[in-house]
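Hey everyone, long-time lurker, first post.

I ran two proteins through the pipeline my lab uses and got sequence/structure pairs for each. Pasting them in order. The first:
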Amino acid sequence: MMLALHAAFRRDLGHLARAAEGLTRRPERRAAVVRGWVAFRDELHHHHTVEDTSLWPAVRRRTSACADAEVLEAMEWEHGIVDPLVEVVEVVDASLSAPAGAGPLDGSDLAAAVDELHQQLSHHLRHEEQDALPLALRVLTAQDWHASSATARKTKGLRTIPAFLPWLTDGRTAEESASTLALFPGPLLALNGRFFEPRYRRQDRWL
């Protein structure tokens, strides 16, 4: 699941970078960019919250090695860098949520903020995949993973699932999507194919 989330974050980072470069030339796309941005922002915030409150504390309880502790501290430190950068992009880009024509977009400031977010988050995702995820897979029990997943479901809420599932697999190959969706209950997948996915496709996003 973590790798699927990371793929979705990377996809949206690419969309965000293109939006930062092109939105001034296509202000009519503002609403679509906002829709894509809000989904990315909310999913990233939820992902980091679950890691900080459930996943990494469970890993910390299962290990006492100094090297492992350093990995976990690095994850927390990197979250402390990335999350404020998300807020910076949102503040700089009052242009994203402002009505079209309400004022000029500060394209250079937005592009600089997005570039910094892109660099820092990309580094964090690589670091997490190379060091933190292998550590978690090595020390956590099935019960630990179940507890973390339960926390993720509880904090996310059922109302977000119709948007979350198609967002998670957007842009993925059929094989990749099937592998990711296999983690979810069959009845939910039936709803996704019949209702969630078509509704998601009808909503315009990004540029």
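...and the second, right after it:
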Amino acid sequence: MRLLIVEDEKRLALSLARGLTAEGYAVDVVHDGREGLHRATETPYDLVILDIMLPGLNGYRVCAALRAAGHDVPILMLTAKDGEYDEAEGLDTGADDYLTKPFSYVVLVARVKALLRRRGSAGASPVHVLGELKVDTAAHRVHVGDDEVTLTAKEFAVLEQLVVRAGEVVSKAQILEHVWDFAYDGDPNIVEVYVSTLRRKLGAPLIRTVRGAGYRLEAR
């Protein structure tokens, strides 16, 4: 899943990004309200962590603009303020949850997971079945037939990109963008390494290489 952090305290933003990346999410970070609004409008994020006190546009205005444009992405607002008025204003503009600084990182992760679960339960089923393969994107569990297969967070994230587009060709660039992030400047062949590992764990025929285009997940 892909998250956007809009937070002008750079040390806090990068600390949150590192932690959430370790949880298995792809995380993008911006430090300005206008850039945050542009990024959230142009990119299909699964959740936005949005500070209120931002340069350019404050969090209230970013949140209100996203809702006015019809974007239903879950929004977790962060603020150094406290008090019922601030919380009410944040929720009135369309935020889904509210967290006051300083906060526990453990609490933030719990809120993020709760919002993502809530969105998943309101939308399509998180369980994808393709032949003998069953992938539960909410529980992060994978079965091939009756056997459960253990995957690392990154392996699961690559598989998730393929299973939600089963039967379609998913390019290496699309996988890099969603599983890693926009700032990734390492070897793009890292995708081939993870696909090779998935083939070994799940069965080689499941993932087809479409030469020059990408990969396609097929029932076997």
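Reply from user beta_strand_b:
Welcome! Quick read of the second one: The helical segments are 10-22, 33-42, 59-68, 84-92, 105-122, 153-163, 172-179, 190-202. The two ends are 26 Å apart (CA to CA).
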